[in-house]
Amino acid sequence: MTEPNTQTERAGDRYARELERHLDWLDTFTSTALGVLSAASGIYTYLGVRTLLDDPGMWTTFAALAYSIAVSVGIFVFWSYMLRLLPAVRSAASRVGLLLAMVLGSVAIVAISSWLNAAALAGGAAVETHMATTVQHYQASLERAHSNAVAGQSLSRDVARVRQSFSDLSEQEAGGTLSGFSGRGAVFRVLIQKSAELEALETQLNEVEGPIEATFAQGNAILSQMRGTTVGPGALSDRTVQFSEDAVELAGLITQLRQLNPAQLVSRAANDLAEAVVLPELDGSTAAIQQGQYNTINSVLTLVAQRANTLSTAAAEVEALPPPDEAVYTPMSAADAVIVYAGNFVPAWAGAISIDLLPAVLVFIIMVIQAAIRGGRGVHHSDDRMTVGELRAALAAAEILREYEEQSASPARRAGRQAHVPDVTASRNGRDAAPAPPIAPPAPSPQADEGADGRPLGPER
After folding, report:
1. Which domains are assigned to the chain?
2. 355-371, pLDDT tens digit by residue?
3. What pTM did the predictor assign?
4. Quick one: what percent of the chain has pLDDT higher than 70?
5. Which residues are listed as membrane-spanning (predicted)?
6. Are 335 and 115 in contact (CB under 8 A)?
């Protein structure tokens, strides 16, 4: 049972050492890569801040630069902490705490940097999208106002039909068909009066048609110009100024179309048609003729009320049409446009957030590798790796301890070690003298076998 366990431990240790070698090699450029990502995020943050600051002065540039540098340093320090500490902790509580800290830090990074990066990446396109959306709103409002005005102007046909009916009745009255008495008497004058009122209203309605079409054509021309400004060349700031001027002019044209709608005019004229009637004096030569005129005039007034009610109903239907929306162009900065139209720029947002939160993937990778290393070596394994610097420090400490032991030895023990050293001085000088007799060691004493600390010395090493 021992041999298989030993082989398994050796295989796990080899596996752990292989992973450690890979981590050591990756550590050589991880900090550099993290610094590059932080610097890139800082550059785009600087560009995003400049879109928010209108003043092009030196202090504005300095403020934007300081903000971007602070963001770069903050991102680098934050992810350096996470890369080192989160994979190293082992307890569940520590991991949960650091993970919560990483989530909170990621949210802070998105708040201080990512949205500005998105503004730098897609700010101009977002502003153009805002202008294009505004053009669509203005176009819908212009078409609605024109449609309502045309519907109001089309009431002229209803007015012409009613006018023609009164004109025909007047001709019949002139022939004596209505009242039974031919001539141009009181009944004829009432019919001619209402026919003249309706003819004047019809003339007004026909005169409105030209201004309505001219205003609509001018509005379409401005819309075309606004579309060209949206996608045309040139600086975005200059194009937004021109777009604002066109938007103001187009809003005025839409208001003018609403005022040209003659539906309210027809409604008021219909009320006057029924209520404002000038009754002529009955001019019949006999009482029977006058009674016939009176009865016919009452019938004519009833008919006038019916025709007026018809015109009022038609005018009310036109007035009930949905009014044009209030299309108002509000200039928007690149950062605000990116937030408002975030759904249209998902790739830009993904890139802006990824450049800031990509180190989180590295953190999870290192966590997995560290867990694999611990699993390969076992729970009770203690790290026995030593770097070259640590080996040199250990050898230096051992040398210091050896010198300390030598200094702590008694003079008698040092003398005893010197007695065993042969005298080779004579032989080196070419002399043939006999070797000196060995010196007898002194008698042992209790003090000679004690060290400097008063404890008995161990055997000679």
Report:
1. 2-124+344-377 (no CATH), 130-333 (1.20.1260)
2. 889 899 999 998 888 88
3. 0.64
4. 74
5. 25-47, 59-83, 95-116, 348-369
6. yes
